[in-house]
Every structure is written in C-alpha cells, then in structure tokens.
Amino acid sequence: MGELTTVERNQSQRKQSKGPKGVVELISGANEIAENKPGQMVYVDADSLITRLDHNVLLPQNKFGLNIILPSTKFIQCQTVSRSALKYSPNVDINNLWAVTSTNKNVHYDIYKDTKDVLKAVRKENEQRLQTHLISQGSFFSSIMNHSTSTFNSLWSSVQSKLPKNIFNFTIRYINNTLPTRKNLSKWGLSSTSDCSFCSSPETLLHVIAGCKTYLDEGRFTWRHDSVLNFLACTLTAVKNSTIYADIPGFMNPSVITGDRLRPDLLLVTENRCLYILELTVGYESNLLVNANRKRQKYRDLINEQEADYDKVKFVNLSLSTLGVFGRSSENFDGMLSSLKCDAKYSKYIKKQIVNICIRTSYYVFCKRKQGVG
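Structure tokens predicted for Reverse transcriptase zinc-binding domain-containing protein:
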C-alpha cells in the first residue's frame, strides 16, 4: 500500500499525443463473481451473500457503500424499539418488566439508544472489518478513507448510481477486488496461471488498471489521463480573457512558457496575471497521497521561477484515482474553479464529469486487458 507503480512514476514523462438500486442486481453480480459466468443465477441466502462478498454495501453512500440495510439489522432495530417502549412506558408494571428483563444475558438491545444508533454501530463494525480483517476487499476502503477528499465522496456515489448496469457492477466488483483478473481466477481455481497476458508480472487489479508496463507503452493509461485532461482543457477555454496551454493535441503546449525541462499538463493565464499550473495524475487508490507529494516536489522550483513573471502563481495538484476518487490534494481544484467564477452548480458538473470519465475509461481498460493493440 502506497508503493508507487512504474506507470505512475513515468506517466508525466510519457505524454502522448442508470444504475441498479436493489439487491437483485447486486446478487446477480455476485453470482458472476462466484461462477465467472455472467447472467447465471445461483439461489443463495441474500443476507449471507452480501455479508460474505460485499461488506461495503452496508455502509452509507458517502463512504462508498450502497446503504443497504440487512434483515438482521432491521430485526435489531425492531427489538430496540420494543425495549425502548418498555423502558419509557407510563405504566409502572411495564417499566418493572423492563427492569426485570434488563439483567438477562440474552437481552442485549438496551445498549442502543434508538434505530439510528443501531445503524451507526453496524456500520462501524463493518468499517473495522474492512480495514482490519478483509485485507484484499478492504484495501480500497482503507486507501479512500485515509487519502480521499470526504466532501467529494457523496458526489462520487451520485455519479455511480446513474451508470449503466454493466459499468455499475464493474465499480462494485472493483471496490471489493472480485473482478476476474488472472490473480483472482487462479485463487478460485479457474486459471492455471496468475501471470499477465503480456508480461511475467502477476495480473492483479492494480496491474491491469495502472501498473502494466506493456499497457503503458501501448498508451492505454495515457489515453485515460488525456481523456480527463482534454475535458478540463475544453471546459476552461470558456474562461473569459484567459489563455490556456495543455499538453495534448489542439492546444498550445505549456513548454511555450515553462520550457521543455518541466512540462505541466495544463497552464491557465487569467486577465489579472494569475498563472494556474495544473498537474493531473490518474493512479491507483493506494497511491493518491504518494502521487500528490511527488508532483508537488517536482514542480516546486518551476512555481518559484514563474513567480517572477506573474502576479500570482497557483499550483493545482489534481490527484485522481482510476475509479474517479479525488485525493485530498485536489481540494485546491475547488478553489481554482471558485476563483474563475464558476458557480457551485457548474463546479459540481465539472467534477461529476471527471468522475464519469475516470470510471468509464478504467472500465474500458479492464475490458481490453486480453487484447493487444494493432
């Protein structure tokens, strides 16, 4: 966790030109995980299936869960309401009944204040289980909770809920690390090898999404990066009386200002002589903080150099995960949009589109994992 992939280290140097809402779809997706046969239904207990495979579905949406309340949790809530009714009843005899039974070792619902307290306890238990017990499935959750921007999490969930069913299921299986990578297929006894189709490294989710050197050489990860950058550049051209430079075809190159030694992804010069230096990174969730720190260190001298030519120089460190999660360093991106007179509604639209592009391009990269280019 936190180890920098070869792809993310070299990416800056290799610049090249409605979703399901119920349990039924979730169970169908989980069956595909178990059998690796899309569409084949297996009749299992829904409660145990969700608990076994998708602990994050119990969590609220702002923590990348589906906010599904299981029947077992509903039962505890009902018992809590019943016990509360006994305790606070105006009838003295009923109060005494509560007092007599409260010492019974089988009565353990009095610890909850109300139904919300039950949900809070259940979610806390599952958070701890994800972080401490489920090493594989919990790695995404731990990385996001430690390194993401909490204010963007609910925004991510609103984008995910509107995705087509196949891409929605991809995000769920990505979060739980149950996609059919060769590493997982080998664990499940469905593949004789766990190695990547194009190199000798194990084909893990990180390897497919952000780590394969062959994929980097073919431009797959650069294509995803530039898809986000192109949207940003096209969007920021609407800023009045400004000049934009972007390291993609169709725009003036940032080297016009910075030279070839350091070439940021995007430069924006405003009418009040403020220079925004935006550096975009799209990497694996566990590397959000590492990528942000690396880029901040890389461009520190450039920022100091440009301060001699502009009234203000602001560095925007836009660190994204391959699933469209904003790293904490990206908070100054919000500040940039606000300074450029983007209202809250338009800023939200921009961030949602960035999330959408990251998810869809990563889905495409994963689907093409077995195919070479050309």
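Confidence is low (pLDDT under 50) at residues 11-53.
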